[in-house]
Amino acid sequence: MTEFALARLLPVALRPETEERLSSWSSRLAAIYGLPVGALLAHCGIDRADPFTLEKGLGAGEGALLAERTGLSPEAIEAMTFRELVRPAHGMIARGDRGICPLCAETPAIRRRDAALPWGFWCAVHGLRRRPLGGEAIETLFGAAALTKLDPLARRGARRLADWAGGRDDATPSVPDLLAFVTAPHRRPSPPQLHEQPRLSLEARRANRDFLEFPIARQALLAVVPEYDRIAPPLAKPVRVGLQGLADGSLLQNFALVVALARLTLAPVDYAAAALVAGDEEGRERLRAALAVWPAWVRRRIHARFRALVAEKASVRASGAEPKGFARRSVSTTPARVSSTPIRLVSGIPTRSLTNPVPNRGPRR
């Protein structure tokens, strides 16, 4: 199509769908004229050919240029971007959908903003749970009974994460601090345990020796969300460190991380102490390093709770009774103290050593 013809046809009456993202709308508009998206943007006077970068923040005058050439208002153009997210959250925006709403899947050309975000487990338009792009659905993995307890936590964690990403959260420990803790290893890497292994014949065990001997990272996430530990495939359990875990995680991993965020927000002392108790000496040192940026009053209570749990565990062992776990005391539902402390990004353990442990491939003795 010639430049003259394109100029004559624009503006076109293509209204964005509810919660549609700019890359989706611009692709549908370009398809009307049989053009690449880059050519359409160039005609609108925008040099950046990738609408994904535009979604993270329109430059000066770019929204007005798009509005002038397409017949939309500048406000409508801005509403299709992620303008409300702070820069540290931009790395969590996915190019495509993270999950599929059954009704949105009927019109795959339309992609919605919340489907690109790691806390968008439910479609904002239809209210339905999103399915993963591959593998089993979350409700199949966890089961209805577990989700009855986990769903309210996931919604609460998602709200806090959205508030943080929008610059509206000043609670402490901050979201990055909590994620740095929950993605820190609380134990040394170890091969799949018996309950994590499928039932295999002796011949199959020999054939799958590499899998059975592969050391898997053991993160505090498994202690804070034991429901995830029980149902996640062994090799898929480790997540990347801190915010990167949400940026690169699967729908299942992100669901577990957001539940962990809610639990650590509601009861940081109980769940942090439980992770310390479940860890080994090496893991506890890593967890204590992650706790170093938490408020001193929280750390004092965590360590006091940890000592009490260790003493209780020793007493139970001495009596010969079966331990009943850390949750004997009711868990507080009061949110953690709110502070005006600015958000801090916490660097964690190098991702490679955490999520890709190198197995021992030496000769067996």
Task: Set down the secondary structure blueprint.
Elements: H1 3-9, H2 22-32, H3 37-43, H4 51-55, H5 62-70, H6 74-79, E1 99-100, E2 131-132, H7 138-142, H8 144-165, H9 175-182, E3 185-190, H10 202-207, H11 209-213, E4 216-219, H12 221-224, H13 226-231, H14 243-248, H15 251-266, H16 268-278, H17 281-291, H18 296-319, H19 351-355
Helix pairs in contact: 2-3, 8-15, 9-15, 15-16, 16-18
Notable traits:
365 residues, mainly alpha, 2 domains, two-stranded antiparallel ribbon, two-stranded antiparallel sheet, disordered N terminus, disordered C terminus
N- to C-terminal separation? 71 Å
Q: How much helical structure, as a percent, in the residues?
A: 40-55%
Low-confidence stretches: 1-8, 326-365
Tell me the domain tally.
2
What does the radius of gyration come to? 24 Å
Structural class: mainly alpha
What features would you describe in this structure?
With 365 residues, this protein is mainly α. It folds into 2 domains: 3-83, no CATH class; 138-355, no CATH class. Helix content is 48%, strand content 4%. It has helices spanning 3-9, 22-32, 37-43, 51-55, 62-70, 74-79, 138-142, 144-165, 175-182, 202-207, 209-213, 221-224, 226-231, 243-248, 251-266, 268-278, 281-291, 296-319, 351-355, and strands at 99-100, 131-132, 185-190, 216-219. The strands form 2 sheets. The protein has a two-stranded antiparallel sheet. α2 packs across α3 (37-43), α8 packs across α15 (251-266) and α15 packs across α16 (268-278). The longest helix has 24 residues, at 296-319. It is elongated and about 80 Å long. The chain starts with a helix and ends in a 10-residue tail after the last helix. The model is unreliable at 1-8 and 326-365 (pLDDT under 50).
